[in-house]
Amino acid sequence: MSGLLMLFLSSVMLSPELLTQLELLPDNEKITVIVVMNSEYPFDAVKNFSTKERAEIFKEIARNSQKDLIDYLNMIPEDVEQIKQFWVFNGIHITTTKRIIKQLLNRNDIKYLFHNGTISLLPYEIVPDSRTPEWNISKVMADSCWYAGYTGDSIYIGHLDTGCDFNHPALAGNFSGYWRDCVNGLTQPYDDNGHGIFSAGIICGGDGLGPFTNDIGVAPDAKLVCAKVFNQYGSGQYAWIDEGMQWIADLKTDSGVDIRAVSNSWGGSRYDLHYWDMCLTWKSIGILGLWSIGSSGPGQGTCSAPGNYPLVLGSGATDSNDLIASFSSRGPAPDSPPWNDTIYWYRRDWNLIKPEIIAPGVNVRSSYNNGGYANMNGTSWTNPHVAGGVAILCEAGSNLTNAQLYNLILDYADRPSHGAPYPNNNYGWGRLNVWRTLQAVLNIAERNQDNDMHQTAIRPTICRGQLRIDSGTYKVVFFYDISGRMVFSAILDKKNNMIMLPESLKNGIYFVKIKGQSPIVIEKIVLMR
Predict the structure, then answer these.
(1) Is 354 found in the same domain as 228?
(2) Are 205 and 325 within one domain?
(3) How many Cβ atoms are within 10 Å of 11's Cβ, its own excluded?
(4) How many CB atoms lie within 10 A of CB 196?
(5) Domain match, 110 and 145 both
(6) How many domains, in total, are found in the chain?
(7) Which of 368, 352, 354, 369 is nearest to 324 (CA)?
(8) Better-predicted residue by pLDDT, 323 or 515
């Protein structure tokens, strides 16, 4: 039977690439096939369930719908090998022959048979190292967040790339302890390409306000959860990437590793929906997918999947003058299902706009192979800025949802005048500003203070130089001016609850941060001597 007739008579959909492979495949050879089951997850019905409960429901649906197929495949071991089951999407990977694949077309529990495609890392360029201060960190105002005491401390950020080398001095202390090599199966972190260590450095390299001089990362105290899904040549099979995405979901739901977002500096073709269900599952279990939008600009409609999905936050590239890079891919996303189905949109005005946010991607300096550093151009380097920003925001607002993070990042972006009107398919909603977004998060936290927070009181809120802080516990008090710069600190205990502000502090508005208890308290005072 010809491939076209076989496809016509079957209710199971095949990717065109798999159909071509089958036409050329010898009868005795095996290929890897991705099987997607018919049963779908009730995402909307479980939206009020806990993350753990949602995951258990998804797993149960996957187990039940895959059982008959797995039983059948186990009966023919001579024709089938390497069966891998997934629940991050409802499907399996198998390596099998053309004869078995044709038999699968007759089943009514399978929706789709997909080829094991390959994705290449986004193009990037190494440029001369000018060794100037890291303009990109200041541009997104990450350093202002450090002065306010927010460095992404202990926030877990996922990282799907070519790996990472935590022996690099800029990344000392950033390894979460969670590592998965989906390519070669090695047990210790490494990067045999350089792309991964560069993107990791932008997320969390350096030590912020500490003595280390190469402060290349947005959130220096964040913890990376790394899966190697691309090989030394920058090529990643769907099978490797699927495994990495499943591992991230398992850690979140089974191991209690609260991964808040995942950095993905890669993309496929414009209409590739292979990762749609996985991104939908990540969204449902509280993982914000972050993707670089692609490096195929400047033409319209060049943004790549998964970065062009409404389920994720896609980022484009700018230079130090906030000018959009010529190579940065542009929107809009495809005006076809499921992209244009509003039930998947994070905001009502999304309307296929991509990228949603822009961030530095030209002449960015970060960590590189053999303990060194490099400057590079590429849209790959935009998304790690956003990932580091998410870490800082989640340190300040531990209960922020995916939707809140997404919308806050967009709503509090800087909007360069030359990119107006906003939003648009070049600049999205604007350029990432972590400090402005952090201030919005702190305002939310202040409005949502619980009873424990109200047990601490700062009196008076308009003062002439003397403050009384009542909480009955040991505490460290930090004072910041409106630019986010720390200007004074004091240590108090149960017997000493009065602070005399130094004469060097000028009249104005200050933010007071009290640590040494849980939760942290943020208050605003006005100094009027």
Answers:
(1) yes
(2) yes
(3) 11
(4) 30
(5) no
(6) 3
(7) 354
(8) 323
Alpha-carbon distance of 218 to 386, in angstroms, equals 9
Helix (H, G, I), strand (E, B) or coil at 453: helix
Question: What digits encode the pLDDT tens for the residues 417-444?
Answer: 999 999 999 999 999 999 999 999 988 7
Determine the number of helices (DSSP H) and then strands (DSSP E) in the chain.
13, 25
Q: In the numeric block, which tokens belong to residue 104?
A: 């699968």
| Statement to judge: residues 382 and 496 lie in one domain | no
Write the DSSP assignment of 278-312 as a string of letters: HHHHHHHTT-EEEEE--S-TTSTT-PPTTTTSTTS
Q: Are residues 75 and 100 in the same domain?
A: yes
Residues 24-64: tens digit of each pLDDT: 999 889 999 999 999 999 999 898 899 999 999 999 999 99
Together in a domain, 458 and 514: yes
Same-domain status, 455 and 379:
no
Strand segments (E) across 77-189: 80-86, 91-97, 110-115, 118-120, 125-127, 156-161, 175-181
Q: Whole-angstrom Cα distance, residue 483 to residue 506?
A: 14
Residue 280 lies in a domain: yes
Any domain includes 193: yes
CB 47: neighbour CB atoms within 10 A? Answer: 9
With respect to residue 133, please indicate whether it lies within any of the assigned structural domains.
no
Expressed as residue numbers, the domain containing 88 is 3-116
The residue with tokens 């460290």 is 476
Q: Which long-range contacts (CB under 8 A, 24 or more apart) does 499-503 make?
A: 499/466, 499/467, 499/468, 499/469, 500/465, 500/466, 501/463, 501/465, 501/466, 501/467, 501/527, 503/465
* pLDDT digits 0-9 by tens, 285-307: 999 999 999 999 999 999 999 99
Q: Residue 461: which CATH number?
A: 2.60.40.3080
SS3 162: coil
